[in-house]
Amino acid sequence: MRTFAPIAMAVLLSVTKLTAQDGLLPFRPIAGLTVGVELPKMEPLSGTVFATKPFVALALDLGVSWTYRERYGVVAMGFFAMNGYDYAKEGYTYDVYHLTQRLELRPFWQKPLRADLGTTLRAALGVGYAFQGASSLAHRDGPFSAFTSAEPQRRLYIAPELSILKEAGRHRMELGLRYVRHLDRTPAFSTMLMLGPDTTLATATHDHLALVFRFHMGLRKPPMPVFPLPSVDFAARTTDTLTTLEVGRERLTLWLWDNAEYDGDTLSVMLNGRPVLVAHELKRKRHKLKLHLLPGENTILIVAHNEGRVSPNTASVLLKAGKGRTRMLVSTSLMRNQLVRVVRSGSP
Q1: Cβ atoms 291, 253 nearer than 8 A
Q2: ∠ CA(13), CA(16), CA(17), 5° rounding?
Q3: Torsion angle in degrees (nearest 10) through CA of 181, 87, 51, 208
Q4: β-bridge mates for residue 252, sequence order
Q5: What is the pLDDT of residues 160-217, one digit of tens each?
Q6: Alpha-carbon span 147 to 133, nearest angstrom
Q7: Which sign, positive or negative, has the C-alpha torsion 176, 166, 109, 68?
Q8: What is the DSSP letter of 14?
Q9: 4-216 and 234-344 have identical folds
Q10: How far apart are CA 289 and CA 273, in angstroms?
Q11: Do 70 and 165 meet the contact criterion of CB atoms below 8 Å apart?
Q12: How do residues 76-120 score in pLDDT, each as one tens digit?
């Protein structure tokens, strides 16, 4: 049980590295710190009860996240947790700390708040298990004595969260609020406190309210393939601006196809002067391109290599950014290029 969480995290991080290098999924390694407060349950067995106060709950967490279209996702995370409790009576104080491990899956939904500030609101619900082994601790100080014991357990818990993420270049910083509640109400451990005729039984489930601080590492994207410039002299042609779009996302998806008579139309596409598709022959089947936009204005230039058997060179184009979709008909020739301007708001 004790080694299960770190082993799982090591496997997840290895998968993250491989898939990020291959550009398959948008993974982010995460490291974080959770700082919370909690209270034990105090049951007087004889005399008057010992005093207690809210005390610290700390956790170091490590995991990975996967996000779909910057709106939905899931986090897999492991925690090394320390739950502390403080007791006092007649000048005697006693602090006890309990170490556990946790493994958690946390689906989330998020929504951009301010594109110009790069902030995002995220709501999540963590579901996980807390693991612990058997342990005991005895303490004596004059007339005061305490005995703490814990049994091996695996307890299910839920943890709703609300947080704000802030972009920092390709990385993200997260600050949020989290509440952990164990569905198994069996105490994680118990402490018997004794001072003269006064005896108190303190138990704790490790339920707590906490602030979370996390760093989301942005993995570098694989380099885009380098294509040669189109072999045609497109610079000498006139260029018509087809449309101007405004988007708030970095990724733009473009589909190209020939929805009329198949006649061998061939074209090239350049993003900000860089070829991303060269000498592609249009067919009925849609060809998909994923484009990464720069902040500010971007240009998508479409260049004809021929005019097929039927002039001019025509292509159906669908542009998709988030929920926004724009469909258009591109008509180019050996004398004319067509241009789409895309203005991306927000931070890099």
Answers
A1: yes
A2: 90
A3: -10
A4: 291
A5: 999 999 988 888 999 999 999 999 999 999 999 999 999 999 999 999 999 999 999 8
A6: 17
A7: negative
A8: H
A9: no
A10: 16
A11: no
A12: 999 999 999 999 999 999 999 999 999 999 999 999 888 778 899
Say which CATH topology domain 4-216 has.
Porin (2.40.160)
Calpha distance 149→139 (Å, rounded): 12
Question: pLDDT tens across 309-340, in order?
Answer: 777 888 899 998 877 889 999 989 899 999 99
What is the C-alpha end-to-end distance of the chain, expressed in Å?
42
Residue 19 DSSP label: H
What residues does each domain of the chain span?
4-216, 234-344
Task: Classify domain 234-344 by CATH architecture.
Answer: Sandwich (2.60)
Residues 17-47 pLDDT 10s: 444 333 434 789 999 999 999 999 999 999 9
333: Cβ contacts below 8 Å, ≥ 6 apart: 304, 307, 311, 312, 313
Which amino acid is it at 185? R
Q: Is 280 exposed, middle or buried (0-12, 13-18, 19+ CB in 10 A)?
A: middle
